[in-house]
Amino acid sequence: MAAIELTRLSKLYPGGVKALDAVDLAIADGEFFALLGPSGCGKTTLLRTIAGLEEATGGAVRIGGADVTELPPGRRDIAMVFQDYALFPHMSVSDNIAYPLRIKKVPGGERRAKAAETAAALGLDGFLARRPGQLSGGQQQRVALARAMACHPRAFLLDEPLSNLDARMRLEARTFLKRLQRELKVTCVFVTHDQAEALALADRIAVLEDGRVRQVGTPAEVFTRPANTFVASFIGSTPMNLLDGVVRGDGRVAVGGVPVPGGPGTGGVTEGEKVVYGVRPEYLGWGTKAADGALTGRVTVVENLGSAQLVTLDGPAGPVQVVVDEDTEVPLGTTGFATPRPDRVLLYRDGELVS
User: Fold this and answer.
1) Which of 28, 195, 311, 340 lies at a 20 to 30 A Cα distance from 62?
2) What is the pLDDT of residue 145?
3) If DSSP states are collapsed to H, E and C, what string results for 202-257?
4) DSSP state letter for 320
5) How many angstroms separate the CA atoms of 279 and 263, rounded?
6) Residue 1 clears pLDDT 70, i.e. is over it
């Protein structure tokens, strides 16, 4: 297997469109690494540039210590699984899995044996004679993975391979994919716009915006300490509350005229300074009576999340969302109070986290 290193990698399209802007990344050998960001941020272009399907305008790509920037895809010793799986509809499952070996001119008997071995590892041994059209979406996904595995590449590049599956099958496939990667100990670079998917699967995540890497870290790091307001607003099934505030001299921040806990970042700001006050809905305590340091507002929306409720308060600070226990009754139109956990408060200055 192999580590992947990107140095000042850039991609410029005609007309001055900058898809990648001097990207620096180091992906460890055997790591499950996610490229995460909204549509158009450059994550798929970055993956295709690693694969050699896109030609870099500047910078370098190294796989296993070797510079492969100028090498064609076939000589980079990587395998790619696409969003649509790209299976050959006229071929059997066995022939689809064996196709990369056929391109490498591996003898037919060896190809079939390898296809059968790989299919068995992915629970496909009863489907070798079928064609892709006779399989479910999850089975087709496993065939695409088996085809990638068959030639033992140094790295897997996965371009949103779960996006065509329904919600339940995505959860099953996600668990399967993580277990498979752990067993193979292979380097994986996984593109997704689904932050829940990235948080669940990845060892580390790179969050991209407009062709630039905005933060690299473990799922816990990007969730609990987003480096900037873009990452803070993007990461999390319930986005972070980002509220305008003014620093007070007592270690608090005035948000909507209410003094609330300033959190660990208050040591890096000065009295009177304007900041963005960040706190996740999960880290707000709910109450129906006034409390010191609580943000207040009228309940305007209650969303059922299954095991909890997401309540929106409209008040002087602006809309504030708070996660409330499923058993708590929250009538619309009533007044609620949301108290931040001081240890979970983040302050942002000019869009960047105050450490």
Assistant:
1) 195
2) 82
3) CCEEEEEECCEEEEEECHHHHHHCCCEHHHHHHCCCCCCEEEEEEECCCCEEEECC
4) E
5) 10
6) no
